TrEMBL record:
GO molecular function, one term: hydrolase activity, hydrolyzing O-glycosyl compounds
Domain Glycosyl hydrolase family 32 N-terminal: 1-248
Entry similarity comment: Belongs to the glycosyl hydrolase 32 family.
The protein's name: Cell wall invertase
Domain Glycosyl hydrolase family 32 C-terminal, residue spans: 251-448
The keyword Hydrolase is annotated on this UniProt entry: yes
Gene3D superfamilies to which the protein is assigned, alphabetical: Exo-inulinase, domain 1 (2.60.120.560), Glycosyl hydrolase domain, family 43 (2.115.10.20)
Keywords: Glycosidase, Hydrolase
Record's signal peptide: none
One GO BP annotation of this record: carbohydrate metabolic process
Organism: Gunnera manicata
PANTHER family with a match to the protein in the record: BETA-FRUCTOFURANOSIDASE, INSOLUBLE ISOENZYME CWINV1-RELATED
């Protein structure tokens, strides 16, 4: 079999794939493959190495043979050895098992994992890479130095959540230490608060950027196994070093077609504003950008100290629940009479000493088919509403059953999978809305129809 794996380009410029397979004893093992024909620009055929498997569970290393998978892209250490981590667990202890090799064929397991964390379960699809402290550019995977931090991302199998920490890599001891205060479980930092899992980054050397891919799983019981990849995203460290930011790669803009703008206007409480049908925007396949001026906060609802789970809070206070400041945002894949819609919106609450900004993706009315998954997603956004220069922006990519939303310049992202029965193709509509008592000012609203991707 062939499970997840990663490609590494070695010092001689040749690419090799490390991937997980199963041996005759149904143990998870790591295998190696190389291109059959390096002159093929698409590298369409690969050959398995005769030395396979190159890493295996044994009685000596005592690795759980059912939880040993998904090797990362390797990095080259200052000691001249390639290093790679593999997801693993021991009971409830999640681990990134470290292996080293001089030739990429013969691998030796390190005594200690690169990192581990209690009570986190299986770590799937780990990823380990550097990020620049003060640059939007991506860093090559083997880079170390005072101008980079390191990111360890793991896909938490139990929570089905892509979690990451930012920290320091001690390359002498091959140990990764998350920053003080980092939460090393599913309540900590994550790439995406919605339907997004088993992600992987790679360094694009031609354009000096790191690109993130992720898996959007199927959420309809009737469609079966038909997950697909999310839009590729550029990823970098924010200027405060606290979190990663993400944004759709700029090539996505090449798919933009017919365009419309709605001028600045006030959205009063309870109002809804449709993108006119005669603009020619295909609301079922669109790229939408909307920016709100930070509203007057005098009517903000009081926050409760027990509101620590944003998903639960979004479920309690969905788009149909009138608030003080918010909910305001977008209704996408909406039917003409609003029997169906998916709402992506903000709410602002007044805590004891600050304000809290909540971003939600509410799928509760996304389909009249009650058999579909209608999970509501949510996340807190790290912005300060009292700073006038701050804006609440939202970019949402709509592709029939997929809604990917990027809040506040990529600080918070939510991906959803929805299956409307009425709001499909030309019957889909697009709205801006405000269901709070406080009016909000919509500074800009731009929408583009998106062309079909041309796949060779």
């Amino acid at each position: 079999g062939c499970w997840s794996g990663s490609t590494t380009i070695l010092r001689d410029g040749k690419p090799y794939i490390l991937y997980t397979g199963m041996n005759e004893e149904n143990q998870q093992v790591q295998n190696l493959a190389c291109p059959k024909n390096l002159s093929d620009p698409y590298l369409r055929e690969w050959v398995k190495a005769p030395e396979n498997p190159v890493m295996s569970p044994t009685t000596l290393n005592q690795l759980d043979a059912s939880s040993f998978r998904d090797p990362t892209t390797a990095w080259l250490g200052l000691d001249g050895r390639y290093k790679v981590i593999i997801g693993n667990k021991r009971d409830r202890l999640g681990r990134a098992i470290l292996y080293r090799s001089k030739d990429f064929i013969h691998w030796i397991k390190a005594k200690n994992p690169l990192h581990s964390a209690n009570d986190t379960g299986m770590w799937e699809c780990p990823d380990f890479f550097p990020v620049f402290k003060n640059s939007l550019n991506g860093a090559e995977t083997s880079m170390i130095g005072s101008d980079v931090r390191h990111v360890l991302k793991v896909s938490l199998s139990d929570a089905q959540y892509d979690h990451y920490t930012i920290g320091t890599y001690n390359h002498d001891n091959d140990i990764y230490v998350p920053d003080k205060g980092s939460v090393d479980n599913s309540s900590g930092l994550g790439y995406d608060s919605g339907n997004f899992y088993a992600s992987k980054t790679f360094f694009d050397s031609e354009k000096d950027r790191r690109i993130l891919w992720g898996w959007i799983k199927e959420s309809s019981s009737v469609k079966g196994w038909s997950g697909l990849q999310a839009v590729p995203r550029t990823i970098w460290l924010d200027s405060f070093g606290k979190q990663l930011l993400q944004w759709p790669i700029k090539e996505i803009q090449k798919l933009r077609g017919r365009h419309t703008n709605i001028p600045t206007q006030i959205l009063k409480g309870g109002s809804i504003l449709e993108v006119p049908v005669n603009t020619g925007i295909t609301a079922s396949q669109a790229d939408v950008e909307i920016v709100f001026e930070m509203p007057d906060l005098k009517n903000a609802e009081k926050s409760n100290s027990s509101w620590t789970n944003p998903r639960e809070l979004c479920s309690q206070k969905g788009a149909g629940v009138k608030g003080g400041v918010g909910p305001f945002g977008l209704l996408v894949l909406a039917s003409h009479g609003l029997q169906e819609y998916t709402a992506i919106f903000f709410r602002i609450f007044k805590a004891q000493s600050n304000y809290v900004v909540l971003m939600c993706s509410d799928q509760s009315r996304s389909s009249l088919n009650e058999d579909n998954d209608k999970t509501i997603y949510g996340t807190f956004v790290d912005v300060d509403p009292t700073v006038l220069a701050e804006k609440l922006s939202l970019r949402t990519l709509i592709d029939h059953s997929i809604v990917e939303s990027f809040g506040c310049g990529g600080k918070s992202i939510i991906t959803a999978r929805v299956y409307p029965t009425l709001a499909i193709n030309d019957e889909a509509h697009l709205y801006a809305f405000n269901n709070g008592t406080q009016q909000v000012k919509m500074l800009t609203f731009s929408a583009w129809s998106m062309k079909e991707a041309q796949i060779n």
